[in-house]
Amino acid sequence: MTALYLKRRTDLFRDRLSLLDIAPHPSLLRLFSALDNVDYVSADLQSPLAMVKTDICKMPFPSGCFDVVICMHVLEHVPDDRQGMAELFRVMKPGGWAIIQVPIESHRAETFEDPSVTRPEDRERVFHQHDHVRIYGRDYKDRLAAAGFAIDIVSYPAELTAELIVKYGLKTNADRYVWLCTKPIANPIM
């Protein structure tokens, strides 16, 4: 769904842009690497696919250096996700945009985290995956906004025809959204 959204609703495939891809997924990595108009950098703490080995909470990139940031299913693994969000915001150019996806349980009003849960089997039981450290709730938008992002939650599957959904094998459940985050351009001082 993300690749289709990027192709149909963003300037990624036509404008000259710098792109930071956190924890690169093989299919998106191939797609982004093939774009002649994109200065592509992938980063991750452990992935052998990443061009730069880095912790999302302390990245080596200068402030305001990327037009676009893609961060898919990473923050639920990061002990200090608020610092990770702040770093994503820091490295984006003013006017830049990001897609920052996490799994969300929409029935939860607030994100649940418990740092005392450390054993993989306990994390599996509590957070539904052995390497997750939280379960996000509906307050995810507030957490992103606290880092400085302006948020647009796009129910993209609702915009697609039945033919496209079948053609691309997309999941269309109600909890499928694109979290489009932008870094506002600061108003000049008068």
Quick summary:
It contains six helices and nine strands, in the order H-E-H-E-E-E-H-E-E-H-E-H-E-H-E. By secondary structure, the protein is α/β, with parallel strands linked by helices.
Q: Determine Rg (CA atoms, Å).
A: 17 Å
Q: Number of helical segments?
A: 6
Major β-sheet profile: 7 strands, mixed
- Nearest-integer average pLDDT: 90
What is the terminal separation in angstroms?
A: 43 Å
The SS-based structural class is alpha/beta
Shape designation: globular
CATH class: Alpha Beta
Total beta strand runs: 9
In the sheet with the most strands, the strands line up as 3-2-1-4-5-9-8
Strand content: 15-25%
String of helices and strands: HEHEEEHEEHEHEHE
Second-tier CATH architecture: 3-Layer(aba) Sandwich
Low-confidence stretches: none
What is the fold-level CATH name, i.e. the topology?
Rossmann fold
Bin the helical content: 25-40%
Q: CATH homologous superfamily, by name?
A: Vaccinia Virus protein VP39
The total domain count is: 1
Account of the protein in words:
- There is one protein chain.
- It contains 6 helices and 9 strands.
- The strands form 2 sheets. A 7-stranded mixed sheet has the order 3-2-1-4-5-9-8, with helices on both faces. The protein has a two-stranded antiparallel sheet with strand order 6-7.
- It has helices at residues 2-9, 26-33, 81-91, 120-127, 140-146, 162-168; strands at residues 17-22, 38-44, 52-53, 66-72, 92-101, 112-113, 134-135, 150-154, 178-182.
- It has one domain (2-182): 3-Layer(aba) Sandwich (Rossmann fold), CATH 3.40.50.
- The model has no long low-confidence stretch (mean pLDDT 90).
- It starts with a helix and ends in an 8-residue tail after the last strand.
- The chain is α/β, with parallel strands linked by helices and 190 residues long.
